[in-house]
Amino acid sequence: MDINQIINELGEDRDLYFRAVAPPIIQTSNFTFTTVEALRTSFENEYSDYLYSRGKNPTVSMLCKKLAALDGAEDCLVFNSGAAATFAAVLANVQQGSHIISVNQPYTWAQKMFDSILPKFGVTITYVDGTTVDNFINAAAANTEVIYLESPNSWTYELQDLKAIAAFAQSKKILTIIDNSYCTPIYQQPISLGIDITIQSATKYIGGHSDVVAGVLCASSKIIERIFNSEYLNIGSGIQPFNAWLLLRGLRTLPIRLAKISETTKVVLAFLNNHPQVEHTYFPLQEGSPQLPLAQQQMKGACGLITFVLKANKVEQIEAFCNALQHILMAVSWGGYESLIIPKCAGMPKESFDAKNREHRMLRLYVGLEEPTYIINDLLLGFAAM
Q1: What is the pLDDT of residues 189-210, one digit of tens each?
Q2: CA proximity to 158, closest of 105, 237, 202, 109
Q3: Which of 52, 183, 229, 239 could bond to 78 as cystine, CB 3.0-4.6 Å?
Q4: Rg of the chain over all Cα atoms, to the nearest angstrom
Q5: Rounded distance, CA 343 to CA 163, Å?
Q6: Vertex 289, ends 283 and 293: CA angle to 5°?
Q7: Is the pLDDT of residue 1 over 90?
């Protein structure tokens, strides 16, 4: 299906709501029935009906149809955060004694689940360097139920060979899950490469306005229905109608926003690569990236995240750089209009800073929708303050 049709038309029956151009917000907690038999039928299969907005809601369903189509999936669930989507996807596919293989340093809340919550129930985790397929093969055991991927990851942008890993997992009947937040389905479609479940933080590019928190989970109808009837309804972490409407609004401009951000990122990246106070940059689609051929093979673009390493001898220099910025905001996340920056050293005690450790000198820059010169001029203020 054409992407324009997905974004502007799919799931929208305007004749049902006064031929309005914008989709409606069905802000209701529950739905009525005219007969007991109709209510009984809805109780029997809530996945296929509107009973209570903790489960299905028309505004949310419209969003799900669009997101599933963008991902090339059969169906979709939308949660009130990316962390909730990740938790449900994993929890639904493990049992006591299960084993999970995960890439090193996954999304923070995925790792907290792996390290602190699942071990309470006898689930074990093996972390591997995901850049080598053999690492997954060697880590697999008879009780391995899930392989958890994040490609690219959100700091140094390591990739996994999704097609090869999916083929191995299928041969062993292991379910594969990927966090696809970095690329969105516009720039990478893991399901077409054989991955079972894709997750993304819709807080970022899907929303696009820094005003809604949400998470997306796409997969086959069989997988989605199973998660809906258990984890989704039981935990009660589904998105609310108004936030779903905000995401529908964000989808309208998603392709053009990503295109603009991608073009600006190229200019800013070139500037950073040529600045004498930058030791190294990380970006998956730049020349010299060790995984460039794989990135070109499975990604259509790389959007707006750049990590760069400052030549700094002490943490105060990095703090001075960040504190001097006038327009680039210091904050977590990404995907909105505004450019953002976050220094790695903010996540550790100041006394733990080690200038010899490249990771301690990393800053992650999200290139927003501003003009390149606007962003570069602000970065120059930071360099001058060092």
Answers
A1: 999 999 999 999 999 999 999 9
A2: 105
A3: 239
A4: 22
A5: 33
A6: 110
A7: no
CB-based contact 232:55 (threshold 8 Å): yes
Strand, coil or helix: 281: strand
In order of their start, the domains of the chain are 3-252 (3.40.640.10), 254-385 (3.90.1150.10)
Beta strand 144-150 with 99-103: parallel, antiparallel or unpaired?
A: parallel
Q: What is the mean pLDDT of residues 326-334?
A: 97
Q: How far is C-alpha 311 from the geometric centre of its chain's CA atoms? A: 30
Q: Is the pLDDT of residue 118 over 90?
A: yes
Residue 86 has pLDDT above 90, yes or no: yes
pLDDT at 295: 97
Residue 187: what residue type?
Y
Q: What whole-number percentage of the chain has pLDDT above 90?
A: 99
pLDDT, one tens digit per residue, over 238-279 is 999 999 999 999 999 999 999 999 999 999 999 999 999 999
DSSP classification of residue 193: G
Which secondary structure element, helix H or strand E, spans residue 89, and what is its range? Answer: helix 82-91
Task: Give phi and psi for 157, each to the nearest 5.
Answer: 65, 35
From the list 344, 328, 332, 334, the residue with the least C-alpha distance to 382 is 328
DSSP state letters, 94-114: --TT-EEEEESS--HHHHHII
Q: What pLDDT, on a 0 to 100 scale, did the predictor assign at position 156? A: 95
Task: Show the tokens assigned to 340.
Answer: 């953002």
Tell which residue, 175, 192, 180, has the closest CA to residue 151: 180
Task: Report residue 307: phi and psi, to 5°.
Answer: -110, 135
The model carries a pTM of 0.96
> End-to-end CA distance of the chain, in Å?
51
SS3 178: strand
Q: Helix 254-273 to helix 372-385 angle, to the nearest 10 degrees?
A: 40
Residue 340 makes CB contacts below 8 A (sequence gap 6+) with 328, 329, 330, 331, 332, 333, 334, 365, 366, 368
Peptide bond into 58 cis (omega under 30): no
Work out the burial of residue 326: count CB atoms within 10 Å of its CB; fewer than 13 is exposed, 13-18 middle, 19 or more buried: exposed
* Of residues 108, 181, 185, 100, the one with CA closest to residue 136: 100
Q: ∠ CA(178), CA(133), CA(201), 5° rounding?
A: 15
Angle 241-252/254-273 helices, nearest 10 degrees?
Answer: 70
Q: Do 130 and 147 meet the contact criterion of CB atoms below 8 Å apart?
A: no
